[in-house]
Amino acid sequence: MSARLLSVPAVAAVLDVDRRTVYRFIAAGELPVVDLRTGTGRSRVRVPVGGLEEFIASRSVVSPRNRR
Question: What is the pLDDT of residues 45-65, one digit of tens each?
Answer without folding.
Answer: 999 999 999 999 999 888 777
